[in-house]
Design a protein that fits this description.
Its EC number is 3.5.1.4. It catalyses: a monocarboxylic acid amide + H2O = a monocarboxylate + NH4(+). By secondary structure, this protein is an alpha/beta fold. The chain has 16 helices and eleven strands. Strand 2, helix 5 and strand 3 form a beta-alpha-beta unit.
Length: 487
């Protein structure tokens, strides 16, 4: 495949590329070759930190030889090149540093259940994307691999912790890449890079075989995409429980990709433009984007009312801080076992070291109280949403933030999250409550940078239906960043 065709394919989403393979227009090997051409053209972004070209080539060749792409049984994603976030998406035999200098030589011993589902769907896995250490930051600038550039502007972060994946998708290297979200790590980079970023509801996917959940249920795995249908198709591929999982979400009534073909029934939508946490006022461009989304939803037959469910912001921030300190102690232990010795302070990011040291002194009572607080605030939130089906809010309270803001130590873990929440606002509430949430690229700042708008609901189907309707009402498909590889 020549380079011009490879760059032309940058604008075709995953479902579209799979359809081309199924019709015989291209082979899986040709799609992979084209993605590698685009990746090489975008190396300056530092989005991909591990190449898996040989492995992917063998996988694509096997798909082509098997005939499954042409016989109509392969599914809507088979043959599509795909990138894995280097955290939460372990691939047996592949490097897995998780953004940490202490794990720079770590190799995954087994594949995550969700990665096995990607492989089962026929996605061709050809690289791993940059991420901050252990996903601790809503920006992607680890000292191990260096910062990932935002395709929209070199002066602002692509977000995090799924920033490498977001940059790769926004630039057109791939139509979709995996991500994970503990306080906004899919939705924040989606907002910064002008993408669709869905955090599924709690327990929609499995953490097998390594765990039953992440951060006591705060973390969910999914992907960054440019189209709503790609997000729906990918969610279909990974929906369900692994063997022996402690709990799972109820299966949807129909596949998500099928569901978005019909509009949502009229929804009662509560709209807030402020933040549940203390901090500066929401930027005017963000307020305008939320209000424009509300007006579009009203024109589609939904009821939109101003209002805001209140939570105990201090209690939520305290609980999230405690859960992170304990999680970081667990990851510190992983590093100790990998190294065969105690890791040194200089092998961690300064902010990570603060979390680790606090975690060493966190008591069982504090940990239990943090979990109880999360559950109590979830009930408080849900009770105040009675009478409404969906919450419409900003993704970030600002445009894409600058580098060096969201990864710095602040003395304590709680102070670290106070700074984060002053920028991210609502994102962590979806993690605390377990609700599904999607960020959509519905606005821009005065200087043309992306602004995300967020919808939250107990389940994904209604969000994907609303997202599909907004994709038509306020189209974003034609927006391209300056670093778009398609020319």
């Amino acid at each position: 495949m020549d380079s011009s065709t490879a760059f032309e394919l940058a604008g075709t989403d995953a479902v579209g590329q799979a359809a081309m393979a199924a019709s015989g227009q291209v082979s899986a090997q040709e799609l992979l070759e084209a993605a590698i051409v685009r990746l090489e053209a975008a190396r300056d972004l530092n989005a991909v930190i591990t190449d898996l070209f040989d492995r992917a080539g063998a996988q694509a060749a096997a798909l082509d030889a098997s005939g499954v792409l042409r016989n109509g049984t392969a599914g809507p994603l088979a043959g599509v090149p795909f990138l894995l976030k280097d955290l939460g998406a372990s691939l047996a035999g592949a490097p897995e540093a998780m953004g940490s200098r202490a794990l720079r030589t770590h190799v995954a011993e087994e594949s995550a259940w969700i990665v096995e589902r990607y492989l089962g769907a026929g996605l061709v896995l050809f690289g791993k994307t940059n991420t901050p250490e252990w996903g601790n930051h809503c920006t992607t600038e680890p000292s191990l691999f260096g910062p990932t550039a935002n395709p929209w502007s070199p002066s602002v972060t692509p977000g995090g912790s799924s920033g490498g994946s977001a940059a790769a998708v926004a630039a057109g290297i791939v139509p979709a890449a995996s991500g994970g979200d503990g306080t906004g790590s899919i939705r924040v980079p989606a907002s910064c890079c002008g993408l669709v970023g869905l955090k599924p509801r709690r327990a929609r996917t499995s953490f097998a075989p390594a765990a039953g959940h992440g951060l006591e249920g705060l973390v969910n795995e999914h992907a960054l995409t440019r189209t709503v249908r790609d997000s729906a198709a990918l969610l279909d591929a990974v929906t369900g429980a692994g063997v022996g999982d402690p709990y799972s979400a109820p299966l949807p009534d129909q596949p998500f990709l099928d569901a978005i073909a019909t509009p949502a029934t009229p929804q009662r939508i509560l709209m807030a433009t402020g933040s549940p946490f203390p901090g500066p006022a929401t930027a005017p461009a963000v307020v305008a984007a939320v209000e424009a989304a509300g007006a579009a939803l009203e024109s589609l037959g939904h009821t939109v009312e101003p209002g805001s469910p209140a939570i105990d912001a201090g209690a939520v921030a305290d609980a999230i801080a405690v859960l992170h300190t304990v999680s970081n102690v667990g990851l510190h232990d992983l590093a100790r076992r990998h190294l065969g010795r105690e890791p040194r302070e200089d092998e961690f990011e300064p902010s990570t070291w603060v979390m680790v040291r606090e975690g060493f002194t966190t008591t069982g009572a504090q940990y239990a109280d943090a979990i109880a607080t999360v559950h109590a605030q979830t009930r408080r939130f849900a009770a105040q949403m009675t009478g409404h089906d969906v919450l419409l809010v900003p993704t970030l309270l600002t445009g894409p933030p600058p580098y060096g803001l969201l990864d710095q130590p602040r003395g304590t873990t709680r102070a670290f999250f106070d700074v984060e929440f002053a920028t991210t606002g609502w994102t962590s509430l979806a993690n605390v409550t377990g609700w599904a949430a999607v960020s959509l690229p519905l606005g821009t700042t005065d200087d043309g940078l992306p602004v995300g708008v967020q919808l939250m609901a107990p389940g994904e189907t209604v969000l994907l239906k609303l997202a599909a309707a907004l994709e038509s009402a306020i189209p974003w498909a034609g927006r391209r960043p300056p670093a778009w590889v398609g020319g």
